[in-house]
Amino acid sequence: MDRQHTFEFVESTVACSVAEELKAYYPSTDTYYQYYDPRSASSMSLAISQLAAYVLEEGPSDGVLGYSQGAVLAATYLIQFSQQHPSSPLPFKCAIFFSGGRPLDPQELAQGKLKWLDPKETGPLLKLPTTNIWGRNDTLWPGTSEVLSELCEEPQKNVYIHEEGHDIPGARAKEAVQGCVRAIRRTIERGLIAQERLIPREIKHVVNHC
User: Fold this and answer.
1) Active-site residue, selected from the candidate residues 61, 138, 145, 162
2) What is the rounded CA–CA span in Å between residue 155 and residue 178?
3) 200, 183 in Cβ contact below 8 A?
4) Would residue 167 show up in a list of annotated catalytic residues for this protein?
5) Is 118 a catalytic residue?
6) Exposed e or buried b for every residue in 8-37, given b needs 16+ CB within 10 A?
7) CA dihedral in degrees (191, 131, 81, 119; nearest 10)?
């Protein structure tokens, strides 16, 4: 991305074992972290509260980028925010989701329950410019990015599907990397154009990775 972009990386804090897709690269004896325990509604609720506090303290930011579990957290946070503050602008102008999972229902979370959102029941809930990027050969979270994409409002939605797996494409997948960059740039431009007045400045994004 261009030098005018800056990134704030949000660190995860919940200890866990090494992710399945990383076992070939990192020793299982090391300590690893995730944003929340996917089996616990209270853990997810805490992660959303922590992200909200971070955004309030470190913001404003123009966009949020989330990978895998980080995408689930970011999407669930945005949906909760829109439900709790329907008359307020969203905290981000755009969202980028890599290999995202299905967001959770914030209302069910408030009751201590874990329930995935179903776009067939709710319709699109993420009403901001978005890019959903996933691999056609993702065997770890198959089908989940498609569901997240369906929760994004159609006129503002951008999708890029590459030939890799669950990981974000690296240097060896040059064509996929270029496709990702083009898709992300389009979404950032849409988010900035949506402002009442566009002025040259540093563009800041929050990154959730896990």
Assistant:
1) 138
2) 23
3) no
4) no
5) no
6) eebebebebebbebeeeeeeeeeeeebbbe
7) 130
Tokens 């691999």 found at: 135
Torsion sign over Cα 178, 77, 79, 165: positive
Distance between CA atoms of 98 and 205, rounded to whole angstroms? Answer: 15
Contact (Cβ atoms closer than 8 angstroms) between residue 140 and residue 24: no
**Model pLDDT for residues 160-186, shown as the tens digit of each residue:** 999 999 999 988 899 999 999 999 999
How confident is the model at residue 195, as a pLDDT?
Answer: 62
pLDDT of res. 6: 83
CA 85 to chain centre: 20
Give the tokens for residue 102.
Answer: 């299905």
What does pLDDT average to over the chain?
89
The Cα 53–Cα 154 span in angstroms is 29
Model pTM score? 0.89
Tell me the two tokens of residue 43: 């853990």
Decide if pLDDT at 99 tops 60.
Answer: yes
DSSP-H helix ranges across 14-100: 41-58, 69-84
Annotated catalytic residue: which of 61, 68, 82, 145?
68
Query: Is residue 68 annotated as part of the catalytic site, yes or no?
Result: yes
Question: Tokens in use for 11?
Answer: 């660190």
Q: Which amino acid is at 153?
A: E
Amino acid identity, residue 93?
Answer: K
* Interval 118-146: pLDDT, tens: 999 999 999 999 999 999 999 999 999 99
